[in-house]
Amino acid sequence: MKPPVESVRVSPQGRDQLMKLKRQTGVEHWNVLCRWALCCSLREKSVPPRPVNSTEGGVEMSWKVFAGEYADTLTALVTQRSCIDGFSNSPDGLAVCLRAHIQRGLGYLASEKDADGIGGFFTRWLKNKRSDK
User: Fold this and answer.
1) What are 53-86's pLDDT values in tens digits?
2) C-alpha of 88 from chain center
């Protein structure tokens, strides 16, 4: 399956959120955290806001590094959500959709106040138990 983008780009704000998440979780690789962010955002039914921040000074990784062994699955999910969310299926539309979902997901993950490592994130995001603190 053809990837939706050649390179995944994250804004400087996203880079800062990734550094915070890396400290909180102990997860060393940004691609893993970006995949978590994408999945957290895709779980929401609402359309993410279109990214307005520049990616200049942010993080860039190849699609292969970002997606890893999940490349085909993530490609299908992003393509489907691009249609559902009203982004076009053009390469530019897919890139905007992907970036919007990663950006929103990083915001969700970085907003965790009481994260106690991976266990806290698992409880909140994978088991769908959000704290009301």
Assistant:
1) 777 878 999 999 999 999 999 999 999 999 999 9
2) 19
State both tokens at 39: 């999945």
* C-alpha dist (Å) from residue 44 to 32, 38, 39, 125: 19, 10, 9, 11
CATH 3.30.70.2660 applies to domain 7-126: no
Nearest to 10 by CA among 95, 109, 94, 118: 95
120's tokens: 């806290």
Domain range summary for the chain, segments of one domain joined by +: 7-126
CA 97, CA 113: separation in Å to the nearest integer?
Answer: 27
